[in-house]
Amino acid sequence: MTDKSITSAVIIGAGIFGVSTGVQLARRGIAVTILNDGPPANGASGRSLSWLNSARMRSEPYHRLRMAGIDRYRTLSTRFPDADWLRFEGGLTWDADDKDNEIDTAYRHEVSLGYDARHLAADDVATVTPGLDARAITPQGAIFNPGEGWVDLPILIDLLLKEFAALGGMLVTDRGKARIMVEGGRAVGAETATGGRFLADAVVLATGPAVPKMAADAGQTIGDGTPIALLVQTKPVTHPLRAVLNTPRVAVRPAPGGAFSLDADWAADEGVRVREDGGYEIDDAVVDALLAEASRVMEGNPRFEIAAIGVGGKPIPGDGEPVVGALRAVPGAYVVFSHSGATLGLILGELLAHEIATGGEHPMLATFRPERFLSR
What we know:
Blueprint: E1 8-12, H1 16-27, E2 31-36, E3 51-52, H2 60-79, E4 86-87, E5 91-93, H3 103-112, E6 118-120, E7 142-145, E8 149-151, H4 153-166, E9 170-173, E10 178-183, E11 186-192, E12 197-199, E13 202-205, H5 211-217, E14 228-234, E15 244-246, E16 251-254, E17 260-263, H6 265-271, E18 272-274, E19 280-282, H7 284-297, E20 306-313, E21 323-326, E22 333-337, H8 341-358
Parallel strand pairs: 1-2, 1-13, 2-9, 5-15, 13-22
Antiparallel strand pairs: 3-8, 4-8, 5-7, 6-7, 10-11, 11-12, 14-17, 14-20, 15-16, 16-17, 18-19, 21-22
Helix pairs in contact: 1-4, 1-8, 2-8
Pfam families: DAO (PF01266)
Domain FAD dependent oxidoreductase: 9-354
InterPro entries: FAD-dep_OxRdtase (IPR006076), FAD/NAD-bd_sf (IPR036188)
């Protein structure tokens, strides 16, 4: 049910959170404009590993939220059962062979939550999922989570924008950076760098790694733990791997058309330098090393070629948990800022739109409010 006092909204950011929220508001009959400084998915959504999961350890509210997120993707997959951009073929993870190996602890935790998990020795992995080089798996074994999957976010965003347009939503791109307009202490719309003004009853900040600074400019503190991320997309190869891999030195995700997406924290730390002008320099040797790590963990040790490289901030709040809801410092303004943008992309758009449209607070977001940073 919609609170009729909210008839219009402006969303800054055309990544998965902004577009998902925009579609949900448009479905409720609200007039929505989405502003983006470039083409849709030109930020973090375009360089995300996009692994759909709730693996390992996290708070119970965060786990429940992620499980709801996966549920929405399963519903979506029934509409597109043959899609090559949304697949549920499991996830496999193992840790390094050292004192920090937590595979057994993680497995026990997942089982305690009812999360589908199997703790397997290296020689048993091939019985549940293909495409692995078992020699890469450490003696402590691996966890296979059969309910996990992956999504190609740019394809999903394009799909959602088609519905958004059909519902009368307006997408405005390439007008430069936008900011919240505040008059009389309240958000009244957004203004682009080129001078365009878009008035609305509600304004949503969904600009990924730029959220903390933009919120600070509006008077709201949000803790920021955003690192630099590096995602390498390969050219297509013929290979049987179907699961998402998270290994000590590389994460590997199948992609449409037989390609693979690769990332690793060490590669971003060692291989990316931020220039004074804000651009990035990438160390080719580190990228080559990342490709070699992916080859090493995959059956047949395939040779990869680079199709594209994405570099930029990976949105992570200061305490690691999502930041969603109204900005208390600026009535009429809302924010959505989180890691795991793929897993949470559909559910957070749905829940935030519910709050904007009804003026209420959804209980699943109770621990994720922006104001929690004010007491720190």
